[in-house]
């Protein structure tokens, strides 16, 4: 035996599993195809939001939450409909995760060095049904350090375990297959890749300079999802979401290629819910990209008007920040716009300054660098955050103009394939603006804005005071061309509640465990058809923790 456990993947799920195992004195080998600078994986690049229930931060804002309400929201969002088969373990993992988020998750993270800002956001505000998709209350907790503040403590623990001789870090080792003997997984094999000092996130070479094989009592697959492989995303794209876009932006580095899931399936593991995925509709091209096709997601408040490629205002649930996949379905299943890959936000500068945030640790230096003065200036002061201001100046998808006619002309310059009519855009904006004469309205989006303003956390930090978009005092006007941006795999290797991979016969496959996105964040689909946000990093944390503790006890 080369180790007690081999972990495939140096992202957050793999690091958490390694932390639990080495803390219990187990010897671990962790293999990662990228260089040491990429330890922490996708989590490093994320905004870092975490789903917590009935937290001190919520209570300080006057937000009343409970495990019962959170489970109602999760179940209504998941809409599991394969409970006798593919969703058997997925639903159990979903329920266990909600209990974790309402219980020891926050204290456990604090024990590992994760610290939280006072901010609580309201992501996925819902599709308008009490029992349907969406969060009933704000639950999106922001840690200091954004994604780096979550992955960093576990990366530090991995380096400390390596220094103590308990963790063997094998970078530039690409797993190409599992070693299976007598029906049990007993190790991994693969290629040693040539050294490459490419900066974190930048695509590295795939030059093979050798091979390797490692044997252990158990293998943990924590290799991530398929988001960087657009061909695979299109191959898995479900009919219910219409036609996949011809062009998409990429929300993850190139090494997020889904190879590990296919390798597990080829070795006898059951991969389920392949048709479930999570891609955003508010992507913009990064004017300063790190990887090819690098997209950044706008994290919107509720006030921007959303138009399709033909300039028609989207109906509910196609409202900013409300229903990610519901909006994707609207944009991809309408035959009139199926030929186009974009949609539009139209907002005032007042909305942009209050409501536009950008995903990514590098786009939020105030939170990432624990910079209180910068946070106060950029989040509560005048003007947009520096990152948003940079996109307004340099982003190829942004148009800024004082007059609506000039704005629409600019929109047509960057999307000539679908020219917009000024009169139609103006009519829809004026109809919306007319509804602001009273504090009550029949407009579903304005109803949501008024509702959001009743939440103190939103009113103070996230939602602009209702105003007419065409009011010159709120200007200039801003339009943003939006693209689909690939992100998460919601299906994966089916696992039981200990994290053991399930084989084709429905029984655990001896020797193989799975965690994180490769396991569909637990059970092969803990989110079901939808996600409530703040649950992806949380799913890596939870599944890595469960797998590490279960293996430590079993070995």
TrEMBL record:
Source domain of life: Bacteria
SUPFAM superfamilies to which the protein is assigned, alphabetical: FAD/NAD(P)-binding domain
Keywords linked to the UniProt accession: Flavoprotein, Oxidoreductase
Single GO MF annotation: steroid dehydrogenase activity, acting on the CH-CH group of donors
Domain FAD-dependent oxidoreductase 2 FAD-binding: 4-537
One Pfam family named in its UniProt record: FAD_binding_2
PANTHER family: 3-KETOSTEROID-DELTA-1-DEHYDROGENASE (PTHR43260), KSDD-LIKE STEROID DEHYDROGENASE RV0785 (PTHR43260:SF1)
UniProt protein name: FAD-dependent oxidoreductase 2 FAD-binding domain-containing protein
């Amino acid at each position: 035996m080369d180790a007690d456990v081999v972990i495939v993947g140096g992202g957050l799920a793999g690091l958490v599993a390694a932390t639990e195992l080495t803390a219990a004195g187990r010897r671990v080998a962790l293999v990662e195809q990228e260089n040491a600078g990429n330890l922490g994986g996708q989590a490093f690049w994320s905004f870092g939001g975490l789903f917590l229930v009935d937290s001190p931060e919520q209570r300080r804002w006057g937000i009343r939450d409970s495990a019962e309400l959170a489970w109602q929201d999760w179940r209504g969002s998941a809409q599991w409909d394969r409970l006798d088969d593919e969703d058997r373990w997925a639903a159990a993992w979903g329920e266990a995760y909600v209990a974790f988020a309402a219980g020891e998750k926050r204290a456990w993270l604090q024990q590992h060095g994760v610290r939280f800002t006072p901010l609580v956001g309201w992501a996925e505000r819902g599709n308008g049904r009490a029992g349907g998709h969406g969060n009933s209350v704000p639950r999106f907790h922001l840690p200091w350090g954004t994604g780096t503040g979550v992955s960093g403590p576990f990366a530090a623990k991995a380096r400390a375990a390596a220094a103590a001789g308990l963790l063997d870090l094998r970078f530039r080792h690409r797993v190409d297959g599992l070693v299976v003997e007598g029906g049990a997984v007993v190790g991994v094999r693969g290629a040693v890749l040539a050294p490459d000092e490419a900066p974190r996130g930048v695509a590295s070479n795939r030059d093979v300079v050798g091979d390797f094989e490692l044997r252990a009592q158990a293998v943990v697959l924590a290799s991530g999802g398929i988001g960087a492989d657009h061909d695979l995303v299109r191959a898995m794209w479900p009919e219910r979401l219409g036609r996949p876009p011809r062009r998409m932006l990429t929300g993850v580095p190139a090494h997020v290629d889904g190879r590990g899931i296919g390798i597990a399936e080829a070795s006898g593991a059951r991969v389920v819910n392949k048709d479930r995925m999570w891609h955003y509709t508010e992507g913009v091209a990064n004017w300063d990209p790190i990887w090819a096709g690098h997209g950044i997601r706008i994290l919107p408040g509720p006030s921007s008007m959303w138009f399709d490629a033909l300039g028609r205002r989207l109906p509910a649930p196609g409202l900013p920040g409300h229903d990610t996949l519901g909006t994707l379905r609207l944009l991809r299943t309408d035959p009139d716009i199926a030929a186009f890959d974009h949609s539009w936000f139209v907002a005032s500068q007042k909305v942009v300054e209050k409501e536009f945030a950008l995903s990514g640790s590098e786009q939020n230096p105030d939170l990432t660098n624990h910079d209180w003065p910068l946070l106060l200036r950029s989040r509560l002061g005048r003007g947009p955050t520096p990152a948003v201001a940079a996109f307004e100046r340099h982003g190829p998808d942004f148009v800024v103009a004082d007059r609506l006619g000039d704005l629409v002309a600019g929109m047509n310059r960057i999307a000539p394939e679908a020219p917009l009519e000024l009169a139609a855009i103006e009519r829809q904006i004026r109809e919306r603006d007319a509804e602001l004469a009273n504090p009550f309205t029949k407009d579903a989006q304005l109803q949501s804005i008024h509702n959001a303003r009743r939440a103190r956390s939103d009113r103070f930090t996230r939602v602009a005071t209702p105003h007419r978009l065409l009011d010159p005092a709120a200007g200039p006007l801003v339009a943003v061309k939006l693209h689909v941006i690939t992100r998460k795999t919601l299906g994966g290797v089916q696992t039981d509640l200990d994290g053991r991979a399930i084989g084709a016969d429905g029984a655990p496959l001896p020797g193989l465990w799975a965690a994180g996105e490769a396991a569909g964040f637990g059970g092969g689909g803990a989110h079901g058809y939808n996600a409530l946000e703040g649950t992806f990093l949380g799913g890596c944390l939870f599944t890595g923790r469960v797998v590490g503790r279960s293996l430590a006890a079993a070995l």
